[in-house]
Amino acid sequence: MRPAPDEILLEITRLGSVQRVSAIDPSSLVEVVFQAPLTADHRAIELLARQKLAYRLSRGAAPAPTPRHGGGTIV
Predict the structure, then answer these.
(1) Is residue 3 a part of any domain in this protein?
(2) What pLDDT digit, counting tens, does each position of 12-65 carry?
(3) Number of structural domains, the chain?
């Protein structure tokens, strides 16, 4: 597994009884999103975010999704 990034950007938003956590590695722009209880400690959230980013980065780049043809406009 690739080591966790040195710097991460965290966005924590309260949604009812949970926190939505978005963590981004600024060098690669890889993002992970997860939920945590409102009672979760900030240090625990940051540790989990680093672990999830390290796992995601170790998987390599995911292929771009293929556009679905149907309604809407592809920009």
Answers:
(1) no
(2) 999 999 999 999 999 989 999 999 999 999 999 999 999 999 999 998 765 556
(3) 1
* Structure-block tokens of residue 27: 């060098």
- Full domain range(s) for residue 15: 9-58
> What is the pTM (predicted TM-score) of this model?
0.72
65 within some domain: no
- DSSP, residue by residue, 42-53: HHHHHHHHHHHH
Residue-wise DSSP of 6-73: S--EEEEEEETTEEEEEEEETTTTEEEEEEEETT--HHHHHHHHHHHHHHHHHT-PPPPPPPPPSSS-
What is the 8-class DSSP label of residue 26? T
